[in-house]
Design goal:
Blueprint (H helix, E strand, L loop, with lengths): L4 E6 L4 H13 L4 E7 L7 E4 L2 E4 L1 E2 L11 E4 L3 H13 L3 E4 L15 H4 L9 E3 L3 H17 L1 E10 L6 H8 L32 H14 L5 E8 L6 E9 L5 H10 L3 E3 L11 H4 L5 E9 L5 E8 L3 H18 L1
Parallel strand pairs: 1-2, 1-6, 2-5, 6-7, 7-8, 9-10, 12-13
Antiparallel strand pairs: 3-4, 9-11, 11-14, 13-14
Helix pairs in contact: 1-9, 4-6, 4-9
Bound molecules: NADP nicotinamide-adenine-dinucleotide phosphate.
Length: 331
Amino acid sequence: MKVFKKIAIVGSTGLVGRTVLKVLEEKSFPNCIYTLFSSKKSAGKKIEFLGKNYIICELKENSFDSGFDYAIFCAGGNISKKFIPIAVEKGCTVIDNSSIYRMDENVPLVVPEVNSEDIFTNNGIISNPNCSTIQAVLPLKPIYDNFGIKRIIYSSYQAVSGAGRHGIEDLENGPANIPLKKFPYPIYNNCIPQIDDFTEDGYTKEEHKMINETKKILHDNNIAITATTVRVPVKNCHSECINVELKKDFDIYDIKILLQNFPGIIVIDDIEKQRYPIATKADGYDEVFVGRIRRDYSIEYGLNLWVVADNLRKGAATNAIQILEKLLRYK
Ligand SMILES: NC(=O)c1ccc[n+]([C@@H]2O[C@H](COP(=O)([O-])OP(=O)(O)OC[C@H]3O[C@@H](n4cnc5c(N)ncnc54)[C@H](OP(=O)(O)O)[C@@H]3O)[C@@H](O)[C@H]2O)c1
């Protein structure tokens, strides 16, 4: 029996890839051997990881020939589309950060605190949900289980790191008026009500991701959901206002207790002391922060939540590594 597990990190030089390496260092899984892949541009460069200098390898069609047990892909949709089938064919189980396979009915879409049982239905690919979906479904899950959910209105305030390295560069280069690399308008001093491309129905792909992925993770296609996703000039951590219509009456105190007791959530909600979650305080944490928990008096069973999380950690790297951890333990 093989003692060591071979793990590939694809896109190891990107924002998510580097966060994956950071979280892996913190977790320090025993008996794992890592290989770091990126594009030709990065091949041969060194990254310090687990106290050693790792040389970045160029991702090629034969990269998986040497027999990897697991791979975490964080190199974008086109790379996932081309290379994941090759990796799976060679016997590798892949956790994918792109949106390519998320809505494929043969691919589980997993947030471990919410639907970890789905991990083991995989056929070689497990999708990591969109960053803004991950942080939303954590607080929604205990509310769904205890009161049912009829309708959700998402309004997101998403950090530039969610758009990768070029997103951060556009914000940081803003005051100098340097030509934009990522966004259609300057993000410096602006809010841009467009994340990803528009679709024919007037919504953006990011809004569709929040709507469709929430239904898939909660296994309920009957929830009515709408979303408006907005890019804001914040370096890291997404914030969301989530308006929820429950199916039955609730006590706000019970909601707070349910959220406090749910794994992966920290409630910060003390308006007398002006305490609520904010992006700069969530930066670097794995937890999802929830506050401003209050009734929506405009409908019968309405609830408002303010939800903030580190999109690079819980929204991407940490969630993927929690899935990997379950796979490693199971095997
Ligand atoms: N940023 C977030 O908050 C977030 C959250 C959830 C999911 N995601 C998803 O995670 C993925 C990565 O996002 P990111 O923000 O980390 O992007 P990023 O900072 O732009 O990094 C992109 C990575 O992909 C690599 N890459 C590009 N072309 C490649 C190729 N031909 N072969 C191998 N590697 C290649 C790059 O390598 P080089 O350095 O060599 O160019 C780099 O490591 C995307 O699918 C994104 O949608 C991102």
